[in-house]
Amino acid sequence: MTRALVLDCDGVLADTERDGHLVAFNRAFAELGHPIEWSATEYAALLRVGGGKERLKAYLAEHPEVDLARGGDLDEAVRAAHLRKSEIYVELVEQGALPGRPGVRRLVHEALDAGWQVAVASTSAQRSVEAVLRSVVGEEDYARVAGVFAGDVVPAKKPAPDIYLLAIDRLGRSPEEVVVVEDSAAGATAASRAGLRHVVTVSTFTTEDEFPDASLVVDHLGEPDLPATVLAGPDVLSDKLVDVAALEALLR
């Protein structure tokens, strides 16, 4: 039976929210002359909103004194700011500013070699997700990935299940054949609502989130010289690594 491993991007492939998206948003705001500079604390709260454009709109709704549109169309001003932010973000990725999280490249390679389909499902912009994935897993394994489902490809973003329902449909898999890797409560809720088993690897901004339906919660996926720690769920790890055998055990 073919299995599928579907990974979120931000906080899973790399700690992109802290080291990438937040940095890129603030650089874009400064470059475009917008009077906004988000702190890490502010951004952590905004992460409850799925999607970068939606995040910015939520902030503007709470700060009517910020005139992003300057008399023009607000949606267009948000799109322009988000486009420039995405360009800066890709530049950061290509400069190597966002190293992969422990165990991601290893697990993707193992899953592909074991005959699993591997895909990414994210609310971030398609170009940004592809850049991170290519950087983290390398060109050879990137070429073997079955799909990247990202951005505005679905109408409702996480915690809605739409992106995961789309992914498993395009991959031709049933929910019983899929394991998701997420890092946030919103992402884990999306996976749960899609009926999918999910492993959570907590990241900088999600250590206080709750994951009541997760099959397994770990600090990271683990490397031979950097063991993973099980924070919740069954200890199915061999050699302190989240590997293909562990994923198979969770599906059983």
TrEMBL record:
SUPFAM superfamilies: HAD-like. Keywords: Hydrolase. Gene3D superfamilies: HAD superfamily/HAD-like (3.40.50.1000), Putative phosphatase, domain 2 (1.10.150.240). GO terms for molecular function: hydrolase activity. This is HAD-IA family hydrolase.
